[in-house]
Design brief:
Shape: globular
Helix content: 25-40%
CATH topology of the largest domain: Aspartate Aminotransferase, domain 2
Largest sheet: 7 strands, mixed
Order of helices and strands: HHEHEHEHEHEEEEEHHEEHHHEH
Number of strands: 12
Oligomer: single chain
CATH architecture of the largest domain: 3-Layer(aba) Sandwich
Distance between the termini: 31 Å
CATH superfamily of the largest domain: Type I PLP-dependent aspartate aminotransferase-like (Major domain)
Number of helices: 12
């Protein structure tokens, strides 16, 4: 038990209810369990979330990024500009194609790529820019797409944490050449596991369908080299149920975030800002604690408040990137990235929280002894 003798407030609470279980059982009884009618229906349903774009379901968000880059022809000799302040999958997808991940710094408010830093990182080898809509806040797509267009670069959106987010009315996943979403259990909606690629290009969508299915559209008529990155109908059935609830869950997250915004008054804690025109869907409610995050985490644990740090180590400092970059003589100067990694702290915001639990979260934060 905690010092408050109350049940802990969970940092996340994935939903697997009776509707999801019934959907799984229905698919299992049908005998069509891989790349069947449920996958096709899920793709059609999800298209409504991204402005009617083509949707291609795959087995994970990482696969969605990887296949999108491959479909765009990105590979050895190319560079893709990515943020270092993200989950490693963003840069891993680039490296898996044989291309190089070039790290650019972030904006302090949105935690997304800084357009000025992106422009400064462009070289003759740059083929694409990968904005990450981190924590559910859209990146500065208005400025980033202008820069990309001026330099004839593809824009690959990592929207794995941002289902339903938008900027100036345009949903994420509908800005660039393509977008990638994840349906991992802790995301705002899930499919047990899975991913989705979105694109406005019908030809690119067909290439993606080939790539996910061993290069085949017709059985044994392989057209290109592909892989097995298909989504199961079991996952798609769960995803369809979850997608139907996403709107209500998102509004609950946004209301929970607004309650925390109003209630958190600790002078040493910076609540998450929202850019003008941005629709934040709060995959995470991420505050900054410049004056002592470790002490804050200990106090929150004692108070029974779930929390997490996403991400304590920037990608460019992880071993698979640090050692090759050192050998190549690369030295990344990313001050906002380093500052964010040292300060961020994500608090509970999921739709299962009660008003009382939200008040407990705010009270525990306000009791922190941290100073700017």
């Amino acid at each position: 038990m905690t010092s408050t003798d109350q049940q802990a407030v969970p940092a996340a609470s994935p939903v697997i209810g009776e509707a999801e279980i019934e959907a799984v059982v229905r698919v299992m009884r049908s005998g069509r369990v891989v790349q069947g009618p449920e996958v096709a229906a899920f793709e059609e349903d999800f298209s409504g979330l991204v402005g009617g774009r083509h949707c291609v379901a795959v087995n994970s968000g990482t696969s969605a990024l990887h296949l999108l880059l491959l479909a765009l022809g990105i590979g050895r000799g190319d560079e893709v500009i990515v943020p270092s302040f993200s989950f490693a999958a963003s840069a891993n997808a680039v490296r898996l194609t044989g291309a190089e991940a070039v790290f650019a710094d972030i904006e302090p408010g949105s935690f997304g790529l800084d357009p000025a830093a992106v422009e400064a990182a462009i070289t003759p080898r740059t083929a694409a820019v990968m904005p990450v809509h981190l924590y559910g806040h859209p990146a500065a797509m208005d400025r980033l797409t202008r820069i990309a267009a001026a330099h004839r670069l593809a824009v690959v959106e990592d929207a794995c944490q941002a289902h339903g987010a938008a900027l100036d009315g345009t949903p994420v996943g509908a800005f660039g050449a393509g977008g990638a979403f994840s349906f991992y259990p802790t995301k705002n909606m899930h499919a047990l596991e899975g991913g989705m690629v979105t694109t406005g290009d019908a030809g690119l969508a067909r290439t993606l369908r080939l790539l996910r299915n061993q290069g085949m559209e017709q059985r044994y008529a392989n057209e290109i080299i592909g892989a097995n990155m298909r989504m199961t109908d079991v996952s798609a059935a769960v995803g369809r149920v979850q997608l139907g609830r996403l709107g209500a869950w998102t509004e609950r997250r946004r209301a929970n975030a607004a309650r925390l915004d109003a209630a958190i008054t600790a002078p040493g804690v910076v609540t998450p800002p929202v850019a003008e025109g941005a629709r934040h869907v709060y995959h995470q409610y991420t505050v900054r604690v410049p004056g002592g995050r470790d002490a804050a985490r200990a106090a929150l644990t004692e108070a029974g408040i779930g929390h997490a740090v996403y991400y304590p180590t920037p990608i460019h400092r992880l071993k698979p990137y640090r050692e090759p970059d050192r050998k190549a003589g690369r030295c990344w100067a990313l001050p906002e990235t380093e500052r964010a990694a040292a300060e961020v702290l994500s608090l509970p915001v999921h739709p299962s929280l009660t008003p009382g639990e939200l008040d407990r979260v705010a009270a525990a934060v306000n009791a922190l002894e941290v100073t700017l």
